[in-house]
Amino acid sequence: MVTRPLIDGFGRRISYVRLSVTDRCDFRCTYCMPMDMEFLPRRDVLTLEELDAVASAFIARGVTRLRLTGGEPLVRKGFIELVNSLSRHIGNGLEELTLTTNGSQLARFAEPLAKAGVRRINVSLDSLDRERFRRITRRGDLVPVLEGIAAAREAGIAIKINMVALKGLNEDEILPMIAWCGELGHDLTFIETMPLGLIEEDRTDRYLPLTEVRARIAAHYSLSPTAERTGGPARYERVTETGQKLGFITPLTHNFCESCNRVRVTATGTLFMCLGQEDRLELRDLLREGGPEALDAALDTAMRLKPRGHDFVIDRTAPAAAVGRHMSMTGG
Ligand code: SAM
Ligand code: SF4
Predict the structure, then answer these.
(1) Is 8 within the bounds of a domain?
(2) What's the pTM?
(3) 25 Cβ closer than 6 Å to some ligand 2 atom
(4) Number of C-beta neighbours around residue 297 at 10 A
(5) Which end of the chain is more exposed for a tag (fewer CB within 10 A), N or C?
């Protein structure tokens, strides 16, 4: 029983935290960050102990789902130690400890993750074609990612594939990706590009509304909506023919804010109340100076600051980025 749940000014209960453990990444996905992305000095980033303290403060206030993300979480040194430590909360307030990864290091880490109690992970996979995968990620190799996915599956971890729909880049892979995921039993979620941080190209050129993606899928499969909601931007449908679950993350064509149940913490301890707004609270110095009590009090302040929703727009008249920070900073 949680005595002091986190409830914001609009009556929304915060039960889900996405915690970025690093802003660094071994890929440079074209829609996410520029090739010459500058990463933060290591001293600014929370230590493993501080990451644990932040996560634990939220769990003590009723957060039941924790997603570790980045940058690429699996490139953070000591990541498995952090997961092992956080796993003490599973079944003691925490219902789910999970992560989002690009899969490049997953083959090595699948087994230890499963042992620590991770039951489900999200893996980003925008193409099943090796050359195209390299073109999108600029540094990634598809082969180890597929090996990582297979290793996770073997370790008993359920996998959800995240695919960003990119006009003129991977739109012809939407149906093949559904078929591939269907065969292997993976859930699949499509994501619209979001205007977060500057990149080399104009995101408008690659923006493919998921309404269009859905229409193309519906021409081949029968889709039936499900009532499932996770308090985030995803809507889920089932493919009648295969029973497979498809998610659509549509921050631009659909507003999801009224049921928002989440906040995000960057690797430097900045608590962002909304992915698409600047409202924030710096937790790192509070924690360093005031310890767990200051952190706990800050969570109450944060609830008063959470805005009603985002104002994303992608069109030629809108600024190239709704907010200056990249998704790799706030962790997708
Ligand atoms: N590196 C890990 C990965 O790629 O899964 C975790 C962090 S990444 C920022 C989390 C998710 O955000 C990925 O699925 C990625 O495709 C997505 N993403 C990154 N930048 C995005 C953007 N501008 N718009 C929409 N999705 C984005
Ligand atoms: Fe790295 Fe993930 Fe961004 Fe790709 S989407 S550059 S893998 S953080």
Answers:
(1) no
(2) 0.93
(3) yes
(4) 12
(5) N
With respect to residue 300, please indicate whether it lies within any of the assigned structural domains. Answer: yes
Residues 19 and 51: beta-carbon distance below 8 Å: yes
Kindly list the distances between the CA atom of residue 105 and the CA atoms of 27, 49, 122, 154, in Å, as whole numbers in the listed order. 12, 23, 14, 15
Ligand 1 mean position, distance from CA 4 (Å): 32
Report the CATH number that the domain containing residue 254 is assigned in CATH: 3.20.20.70
328 lines ligand 1 (CB under 6 A): yes
Two tokens at 58?
């939220």
Per the listing, tokens 């029968």 go with 222
One-letter amino acid for residue 92 of the chain: N
Measure Cα distances from 149 to 104, 111, 173 in Å: 9, 12, 18
Residue 173 maps to a domain: yes
Query: What confidence tens digit (pLDDT) does each residue in 291-323 have?
Result: 999 999 999 999 998 887 766 555 545 555 556
Identify whether 25 is part of a domain: yes
pLDDT of residue 103: 98
